[in-house]
Design goal:
205 residues, mainly alpha, three-stranded antiparallel β-sheet, 3 strands, 52% helix, elongated
Length: 205
């Protein structure tokens, strides 16, 4: 079961508005935004996204296509599809509401997709712009908190490693190459005695 956001949707009567009327309002809003410069007209990939994006609205007005689906229909990359949809939201032509689903394996609620709504009136458009700003600020705060948590964990790991005691192999005062079963050679040995000692050592190891 999806867990909807507690923020009420912009269009409470969205499902009662005919699909054709919503599509017409959306297309006229996009055309006006292109003429006024609110949306960049030079980006032809975005125009394809706008056309295919609204065509993915369901017969009952439900509208929650993935970025991958929009990109596939428009023949563009997912990044282009995301940028175009984000531009629509930034000027208040659509309202975006996150949808969540409980993941039993992870034991928590995860974000699965977005629910989109066509903004009908100017008042709703202003509300949609404010809602977007609040959502973006909340998402930015979550990213900063996650980054700070990762940084703290890395710093904690460095401190733990720094304070670990040195191992026997790292102890410069310990002769780890000492042969336990042989006596220490004398420094006054002859050349032949040194050769015999080395050969004996190689055989024992």
């Amino acid at each position: 079961m999806f867990v909807r956001s507690r923020i009420p949707p912009v269009c409470h009567e969205q499902n009662k508005t005919p699909r054709d009327k919503l599509k017409s309002l959306f297309k006229s809003g996009v055309e006006a935004a292109l003429m006024t410069g609110e949306l960049p007209s030079r980006n032809h990939g975005w125009k394809s996204v706008f056309d295919k994006f609204i065509d993915l609205m369901g017969p009952d007005g439900s509208w929650f296509p993935s970025h991958a689906k929009v990109a596939e229909k428009a023949g563009v990359s997912e990044r282009t599809a995301w940028a175009a949809i984000n531009a629509l939201e930034s000027i208040g032509l659509i309202r975006v509401e996150a949808r969540y689903l409980y993941d039993a394996e992870k034991g928590k609620t995860v974000r699965t997709s977005n629910l989109y709504e066509v903004v009908v009136t100017k008042a709703q458009r202003a509300v949609a712009i404010l809602a977007r700003a609040a959502r973006k600020a909340k998402e930015a705060a979550k990213r900063q908190w996650a980054a700070a948590s990762r940084s703290s964990m890395v710093e904690w790991g460095r401190r733990v490693i720094h304070h670990l005691p040195a191992t026997a192999a790292e102890d410069p005062q310990l002769n780890i190459f000492k042969r336990e079963n042989q006596a220490e050679p004398s420094r006054n040995w002859s050349h032949n005695e040194w050769i015999e000692y080395c050969q004996t050592g190689n055989q024992t190891t």
